[in-house]
Amino acid sequence: MRRTSAGNYALGTDIDATGYTLAPIGNHATPFTGQFDGMWHNVNNAHIEIADFSKDYSSGLFGVVGTGGVLRDVGVENGRVSTSFLGSGLLAGVNQGVIANAHSTGVAMEVYQNGTTFGGLVGRNEGSVERSWSSAAISGSDANGGLVGYNLGSITQSYATGSVRPVFSTGYGGGLVGINDGTVSQSFATGGSLPPSNGLTTAQMSDPASFTGYDFGANGVWAMPAGATHPVLRSQLAH
Questions:
Q1: How far apart are CA 187 and CA 54, in angstroms?
Q2: What does pTM read for this prediction?
Q3: pLDDT (tens digit, 0 to 9) for every residue of the chain, 239 residues total?
Q4: Region(s) of the chain under CATH 2.160.20.110
Q5: Residues 6 or more apart from 57 whose CB is under 8 A from it?
Q6: Is the separation of the CB atoms in 220 and 211 below 8 Å?
């Protein structure tokens, strides 16, 4: 895949990367611009690291997904990604293409301050993230988001449930997005580092009537399952 970054690929089975340190696929000089279909499989236990964080590199299973690149139907589970210079996420360091139906679990963190943006799924999003989620724990020095560290593109029908903890006072933390200069729609977060707000009681959160404009119909985006304490995306009910 590193030799032919514009190719089309499919993942035929789950992959266990235990014991290996993986280098990101694609970088800013040669981004991944092909299509990667995970076929609903996972890459498990991946430790993703770049060789030299002082250079123009991003860290993730895919370092940089370029314009026209597509990642879909794939999970990175129990993964770990550490410091890079321009963005770190368990699936992608930087996304300029399309990520759809993807998820991640694990840890994205750094040990010292160098201005890195961290996201559970994507470090820096300049493209689109759709119908995706992350439960990864995030800890970094700059923009930290449960799903995306720094969003300049679009996020739709996605969510994050992992904890978010900036490691320095100069850092930003958000349950879904660390810094948002793009658009976010039909998405939510339940993780830590959420700002103070005028919240609802548990009873109110469990009542669809509290959410004006939400479509809870049979074909709507949102659902309120029996016993739930907040709305969920209808796509979650299939997981």
A1: 34
A2: 0.88
A3: 878 899 999 999 999 999 999 999 999 999 999 999 999 999 999 999 887 766 778 899 999 999 999 999 999 999 999 888 888 999 999 999 999 999 999 998 765 556 678 899 999 999 999 999 999 999 877 888 999 999 999 999 999 999 998 776 667 788 999 999 999 999 999 876 655 555 678 898 899 898 888 999 988 999 999 888 889 998 888 65
A4: 8-197
A5: 24, 27, 28, 50, 63, 84, 85, 86, 93
A6: no
Domain made up of 8-197: CATH architecture: 3 Solenoid (2.160)
Token pair belonging to 127: 């493209």
What is the DSSP annotation of 59-86? BSSEEEE-TT-EEEEEEEEEEEE---SS
Closest by CA position to 134, among listed 150, 126, 145: 145
